[in-house]
Amino acid sequence: MWQSLVGRRSRPVVNWVERGAVRRFAEAIGDPNPLYLDEEAAKKSRYGRLIAPPTFPQTFDYGTIEGLCLPDSGLIHGEQRYDYVRPLFVGEEITCYRVFQDMYEKRGRRGRLTFLVFSRVGEDSGGKTLFTTRDVIIVTETVMKEWKG
Amino acid sequence: MTTKAPISWNAGEELPSITLPPVTRLDLIKYAGASGDYNPIHTIDEEAARAGLPGVIAHGMLTMAVMGRLFSPYLEHGFIKGFQTRFTGMVFVGDVLTVGGKVLGAESTDQGDLYSFDVFARNQKGETVASGQVEFLVFRD
């Protein structure tokens, strides 16, 4: 059902690294680093401006892949990878999209597991890649049966 | 001219670990709001129960973010270039997480010294709930 959609990508969406969003995110993860929050400290740093925490790209909109429907609950986040070219700067514009990279099945102790692999990409306004991700989502046989119902 | 790296680590060296206060429901509500991940199994008991869970569970990405905090003291001198995590266990309200990391090795690159680390998050029972690797690049000043 999903196999034929492998390779598809979402239409890119423009996101901004907003100062207030970075502050709320830093607070939520318990990391009040001055480089995320304090304009003066950030100005004196090598970046000369505020940066965002490493997992902040979780907050961006990556668009939806046309035709791809997933169960709305019970999905397991198995694995996550981020690769960065540099930290993200507060105030910058980042164009984001996602790609459905792969799908495979494995037999586990509690039945068949379906693995869905996505990558997400963030580019600067010049189209240069700033970060990429690899996201592995697991759908259990129980969830699959209930969903197809 | 040779330049000196502002920080350096040796293979086998451990980063200072961080033990967090017990996870609260409010922590999960705050992370849901800050991240935009409103999957109700993280915040609403009935939804967690419907998914067969004994209670709400923390967002895996919150645990990953907390592991990232290990590198926060060094951001003046470098940044996380690669960050991979496998989620191996669930985190419940009341759990006490400890995150830590250990240097695997280093290589010299054009941009600076690239260190690799094993990182983990464990609960109060000593069970690993997440583990992975970080590549941290230290700039040459």
Detail the topology: elements first, then pairings.
The complex is a heterodimer of chains A (149) and B (141).
Chain A: E1 13-16, H1 19-28, H2 34-37, H3 39-44, E2 76-84, E3 93-108, E4 111-123, E5 129-140, H4 141-148
Chain B: E1 18-19, H1 25-35, H2 45-50, H3 60-68, E2 78-87, E3 98-108, E4 112-122, E5 128-139
Antiparallel strand pairs in B: 1-3, 2-5, 3-4, 4-5
What does the model show?
Chain B: It holds the Pfam family MaoC_dehydratas. The complex is a heterodimer of chains A (149) and B (141). Chain A has 149 residues and is an alpha+beta fold. Helices cover 19% and strands 36% of the residues of chain A. Chain A has a five-stranded antiparallel sheet. Chain A is elongated. Chain A starts with 12 loop residues before the first strand and ends with a helix. Chain B has a single domain, classed as Hotdog Thioesterase (Thiol Ester Dehydrase, Chain A, Roll), CATH 3.10.129.10. Chain B has helices at residues 25-35, 45-50, 60-68, and strands at residues 18-19, 78-87, 98-108, 112-122, 128-139. The radius of gyration of chain B is 17 Å and the shape is elongated. Chain B starts with 17 loop residues before the first strand and ends with a strand. The model of chain B has no long low-confidence stretch (mean pLDDT 94). The A-B interface holds A 21, 24-25, 27-31, 33, 35, 45-46, 51, 53-55, 58-59, 73-74, 76-84, 86-87, 134 and B 20, 27, 30-31, 33-37, 39-41, 47, 50-51, 60-62, 64-66, 68-69, 71-72, 75-76, 79-87, 139. β2 of chain A pairs antiparallel with β2 (78-87) of chain B, so a sheet runs across the interface.
